[in-house]
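Sorry, any thoughts here?
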Amino acid sequence: MGRLMVRLYQIIIAGFFIFGTGILSAGQNTAIVDWRRMELKVSAVSTILEEESGNTADWQYTAQRRAEESLFENFIRSMKKVQVDAYSTAADVIHSDYTKNRRLYSYYTGMRKSEIRYIEQDVIIEKIFPLFGEDGFMQILFEAGYDTGNFHTYDRFVHSIVFTGLVVDARGLGKVPAAAPRIFDSNHTLVFSADMMYLESFRKWGAVQYTDDLNVRLYEKRVGDNPYRIVAIHDDKLIETDIAISVEDAQVLLQKEGSRENLMQGRVVIIMDSLRV
């Protein structure tokens, strides 16, 4: 078993201990979840030490190897910062299903592209891990599509049109981004979740696109030119990853089959205040 694999099990057994608070940090050792870009950026630093033997290239290489091991540890520890759904971080998922450990290890070792910089006496390595897409690691942690297309049916008919997507303004509510958030109406009826999506769409770009920019034209490819734009409402009974909308908005949104089809494709944008954790 390789050293990185052994270290993986050591970190998992230790309970994903995180040093510091907020951004995983110790000098240049950081892990940042950027929900706007839907990616995890991890970095590690190691000091270049002059030894009795060898040369500058040898010392730099040794420091780089130490930084690479620290980078792997930071990646595993950062799983505590990646919120998967309403109740679980990536670390929680791995703890509950240890078969995912080797898959996560294989994923990490397969992502070879990294940026290496030498600054004064330090070597810094940075690596970006997409949450979704062909190289996304969320598909290891969460399987969407268990209830595809099973939207709630409201008894009362309301006038509506086919919407190309959904844009929810959730600013000012203290909400937290997650890979698989849920949207409820004010009666706490489930309106949308990753389970209702196509699995392929979830793997492609997740359940929702987060942004802190009201100019959602940047995401027109996702929500189209005629999305339903609504404002989320405050609800003390929902946890911080879940969002509430009015019953009236939910009825309008789900009235047409074409709108429901676009929801199954994950054509949803949520506007929040802060998207880097």
Remarks:
- The first strand starts at residue 24 and ends at 26.
- The chain has a mean pLDDT of 88.
- The chain is about 30% helix and 20% strand.
